[in-house]
Amino acid sequence: MHIPDGMIDAKVAVATAALAAGGLGLALRQARIDVSPRRVPLMGLAAAFVFAAQMLNFPVIAGTSGHLVGAVLATVLLGPSAAMVVISAVLIVQCLMFNDGGVTALGANIFNMAILGCAVGFAIYHPLASLFPGRRGQILAASFAGWCTTVLAAVMCAAEISTSGKASWSKALPAMAGIHMLIGIGEGLITAIVLVSIARLRPELVPDNSPIASSPPRYAVAVAYGLLISLGLALFVSPLASKSPDGLESVAQKHDFAEKPTDQPLLRAPIPDYKMPGISSAALATSIAAAAGTLIVFGLSFVLARILVPSATPPTEINPHAR
Predict the structure, then answer these.
(1) What are the pLDDT digits (tens) for 102-151?
(2) Residue in 57, 52, 65 with CA at minimum distance from that of residue 241
(3) Residue 94 backbone zone (phi > 0: left; psi -120 to 50: alpha; other: beta)
(4) Across the strands, what pairs with 59?
(5) What mean pLDDT do residues 198-216 have?
(6) How far apart are alpha carbons 314 and 321 in whole angstroms?
(7) Which residues contact 251 (CB under 8 A, 6 or more apart)?
(8) What is the pTM of this model?
(9) Are the CB atoms for 78 and 39 separated by under 8 Å?
(10) φ, ψ dihedrals at 26, nearest 5°
């Protein structure tokens, strides 16, 4: 659902960039309060996993694919403020390094998927998880919130495209919402599967509403294993992903508001279209590009989190959902 250059006009680009900057600024400020030093590596891990998982497009219907957004997944693991920072970091790297999403539309993409995705996802997930306590209620709440935020991002994307005059609202809304209702099912299922797996293997990584233990765990080993899993997905699974256009690309092509083939991105990325230059094998070029991106977003998010979170803060675990 990454909007490319040329699909929204200047006024929408400026407005969404301002909203994204404001939301991200508040998220950065709140993350300093919410994130404990012990959980800083988890921000890098979450970014790496979301980036790698977004490479794995899954077929939805004939000629259309979808992929994980990961906003709710990151929110459950980190809390909404840290999740906004993580998803924004992923989107920035995808845009600047891989031409996945346009530079002029970066604000819109961050606003749709990171700011709204995490904020609304938390607003749906948290009360439901509180209403239905226990792991099962938590997983169901996260799955439903994932579906909702996928559809919401699609609706916002349709609004931005129609406001830009690229397509009528009556055409863009049902097309975008309809296909993303199906993609949202995949988002919800993947979110549930990942959370169930983490809860069984490393339950301390999935915060809940229970009292926090006085001696919080260390996350170094979990982060190391998680990064290896993310790299494994990038290296060995990403070349097998569906090559069909994603929901936005498919709708844009069918309804004739895609960018022209002659249009060029405003900024040429060093690794366009997730193909490492100079490698003749398409599968190997994708694997190397995906692994490089995974490591870059891990490093960027980890360093940013280390800068944000004062190391002098006492190492007391903070429940990211406590308010």
Answers:
(1) 999 999 999 999 999 999 999 999 999 999 989 999 999 999 999 999 99
(2) 57
(3) alpha
(4) 65
(5) 68
(6) 19
(7) 172, 175, 176, 179
(8) 0.91
(9) yes
(10) -65, -40
4-52 pLDDT per residue, tens = 999 999 999 999 999 999 999 999 999 999 888 888 899 999 999 999 9
Q: Which amino acid is at 38?
A: R
Looking at residue 64, the DSSP 8-state letter turns out to be E
Q: In angstroms, what CA-CA distances link 301 with 1, 144, 215, 260?
A: 22, 27, 26, 34
Mean pLDDT along residues 199-220: 67
Contacts of 89 (CB under 8 A, 6+ apart): 47, 297, 300, 301, 304
Q: Retrieve residue 128's tokens.
A: 């439901």
Q: Is the pLDDT of residue 82 over 90?
A: yes
Cβ contacts of 57 within 8 Å, gap of 6 or more: 65, 66, 67, 241, 242, 243, 244, 246
Q: What per-residue confidence (pLDDT) applies to 1? A: 85
Residue 291 burial (10 A CB sphere; 0-12, 13-18, 19+): buried
Amino acid at position 82, single letter: A
3-state DSSP helix/strand/coil percent for the chain, to nearest 5?
Answer: 70, 0, 30
- What does the block give as tokens for 152? 């919401």
Residues in contact with 64: Cβ distance below 8 Å, sequence separation at least 6, in sequence order: 179, 244, 245, 246, 247, 250
Quote the tokens at residue 294: 């995974």
Q: Domains along the chain?
A: 10-260+268-308 (1.10.1760.20)
CA distances from residue 117 to 14, 38, 227, 262, 274 in whole angstroms, order as listed = 20, 25, 24, 32, 24
Pairing assessment for the beta strands 58-61 and 64-66 based on DSSP bridges: antiparallel
CB 135 within 8 A of CB 28: no
